[in-house]
Design goal:
heterodimer; A: about 290 residues; mainly alpha; two-stranded antiparallel sheet; about 5% strand; B: about 280 residues; alpha/beta; 10 strands; about 35% helix; disordered N terminus
Chain lengths: ~290, ~280
């Protein structure tokens, strides 16, 4: 039982990281109607920014986090502006290929600058082990859970209550009509990339503090898993991305503990396939009905 | 590919002779909209050619023509959904050459769509307030934590939205999902959403499509009421000739992308070119 609760909590922690990344995928998909496969690599850049800020420049932890968020936000907006915006009218396949290219570009730039050797992410937050009754869990896992919960609540409020959120929902529903209502689509999409990338920076912090070692391909696997989570929950839906991320993390940890660490990834993707067979739009995705 | 012919850059603003019926009350006011030699080519096909139009600031005008004549294309040119390849659009005295679609909306042009394009998953009220947000300013933080500034501004937006909804007696729908409304109500909501951008010119693309005669009669009355209350110009595309002849002060007839007749409803009804376009040529 204790083992089960421990696994559950670490699954929730891992799932929180997936959820943070998945939010970026799903928002960009919902609003810009594109899959930003470079999103995972933004996390890697965020992690390296943390290493440089804390280890090399000796900044205090607060500034390290702030700088990492700033770097990722700027990177996200820059990628959108130079790589995706010129393709706004192009076919979605061209945009997809561009995104994959951007992903490799970021990985190889990191390889050039930081080398292929893995680097340790500075452990600027030390929480040690926390015991909750009979169960001891990592403090960092609890921190991750707390941070993610705050961000999720904040994002829901932002999307549902602010006028920027309303503009984003309008663009997601009908870009052309939103534009004719005076909403600047370009600015809304740039904002979406900024928010998604800022969340990726937060995810990079949680990832670095939990898993410590960072290399240029660090972003790839969490990126794919988070994309899976976004599809699992219903791509385009914010609650779907949150739910999908958490579910995926818990399934992965459960599979690692109770079945085999080697099989964990295979099981995760098998579950995705099963869910999509039963519900092709994902857990919370909307069914699109075309009137004929 | 052959270079696109582009005369827009060199088009001079010369005073145009009015070849178009402008209501007397608007005669000495500057026109709200002037199209001069407007045209667009798609590949080699010219969808709209040499389109001239002058619209008084409180005029209700109709754009009619057989299917595929280019009427909606004209709307798309006016709102910059398509970039014109020829000609000039002067809206409210300003050349719209460099404006974006959103910029056109800010300048005061609003439209509805042939096929309804509401934000179906947002509430009726949100559909209306989304365009008002440009004017309603509060800080991001205030929006998230629901501070007093937010409450005041949101109340203001709510009151304005209800005011708009009252035009068509739709207050009871305010909280409903826009996509769940009956067809006629969705059409009316689209007009209200367009009005909420505070337009000077309202473009209506087949507002009476799918309406029964009594709904159409009500709509006719309402468009006139909207014009009187907001003192705006209305340009509408419509196939319902009853509505067009009752409501419009000036009518422009398009066929195969070209203007074949312009004038008052009486002139248009007797114009041989119009009769031919709609009914075909009489066999000799």
């Amino acid at each position: 039982m204790i083992e089960f609760i421990k696994t559950l909590i670490s699954g929730l922690g891992l799932g929180s990281i997936y959820a943070l990344i998945a939010l970026g995928y799903t928002m960009v998909y919902g609003i810009a109607k594109m899959l930003n496969f470079a999103h995972g690599d933004v996390i890697m850049v965020g992690a390296y920014a943390g290493i440089v800020a804390f280890t090399s420049a000796g900044l205090p932890p607060v500034f390290t986090v702030f700088l990492s968020v700033l770097v990722c936000t700027l990177l996200g907006v820059t990628i959108e502006h130079f790589a995706y915006k010129p393709l706004r009218g192009a076919s979605s396949l061209s945009v997809l290929i561009t995104a994959i290219g951007m992903s490799y570009l970021l990985q190889n730039l990191a390889l050039m600058i930081f080398g292929s050797q893995q680097k340790a992410y500075p452990q600027y937050v030390k929480l040690g082990q926390v015991s909750l009754g009979a169960v001891t869990v990592d403090g960092i896992t609890l921190l991750t859970l707390g941070v993610t919960a705050c961000i999720m609540v904040g994002m829901s409020l932002f999307i549902n209550r602010t006028k920027l959120g309303k503009a984003m929902r309008a663009v997601a529903e009908d870009r052309g009509a939103a534009e004719l209502m005076g909403i600047s689509v370009d600015r809304t999409i740039a904002l979406t990339f900024a928010i998604g990338s800022a969340l990726a920076a937060v995810a990079s912090m949680c990832y670095g503090l939990t898993y410590v070692y960072i290399k240029p391909t660090t972003g790839a696997m969490p990126g794919i898993k988070a994309f899976t989570a976004a599809v699992f929950g219903g791509i385009g839906s914010l609650p779907g991305a949150m739910l999908g991320g958490i579910a995926l993390g818990v399934i992965e940890q459960m599979a690692k503990t109770y079945i085999s660490p080697l099989w964990a990834d295979a099981i995760v993707f098998a579950v995705l396939v099963l869910v999509l067979v039963v519900r092709p739009t994902g857990l919370l995705g909307k069914e699109i009905q075309e009137k004929v | 590919m052959a270079p696109l012919e582009n005369s827009r850059a060199t088009a001079k603003l010369v005073p145009q002779q009015r070849t178009w019926y402008v209501p007397e009350r608007d005669a000495d006011k500057p026109p709200i909209l002037e199209c001069i030699g407007l045209g667009v080519n798609f590949g080699g096909l010219s969808a709209v050619k040499d389109f001239d139009l002058t619209l008084g600031p409180t005029e209700i005008a109709g754009l009619i023509g057989p299917n595929g004549a280019g009427k909606t294309t004209v709307f798309n040119l006016l709102t910059k959904v398509y970039e014109p390849t020829h000609g000039t659009i002067l809206f409210d005295g300003k050349d719209t050459h460099n404006m974006t679609t959103a910029g056109i909306s800010h300048a005061g042009m609003a439209r509805t769509f042939q096929n309804i394009r509401l934000f179906a998953n947002m509430t009726v009220e949100q559909n209306i307030t989304v365009a008002m947000d440009r004017e309603i300013k509060y800080s991001l933080l205030s929006g998230i934590v629901h501070g007093p500034g937010w409450k005041r501004k949101e109340k203001e937006a709510h009151d304005k939205a209800m005011d708009f909804l009252s035009i068509f007696n739709m207050e009871q729908y305010a909280g409903a999902r826009a996509g769940s409304l009956p067809y006629g109500a969705q059409r009316r909501l689209e007009i209200l959403r367009a009005l909420s951008t505070k337009p000077k010119l309202l473009l209506l693309d087949e507002p009476a499509a799918g309406m029964n005669p009594s709904e159409t009669a009500e709509l006719t009355e309402n468009i006139r009421l909207i014009r009187d209350r907001f003192e705006i110009a209305v340009l509408l595309i419509e196939h319902d000739m009853n509505l067009v002849m009752n409501l419009c002060e000036g009518i422009c007839v398009l066929n195969f992308g070209e203007v074949i007749a312009k004038g008052s409803p009486e002139d248009i009804q007797q114009d041989p070119a119009v009769i031919e376009a709609y009914l075909g040529r009489k066999e000799a």
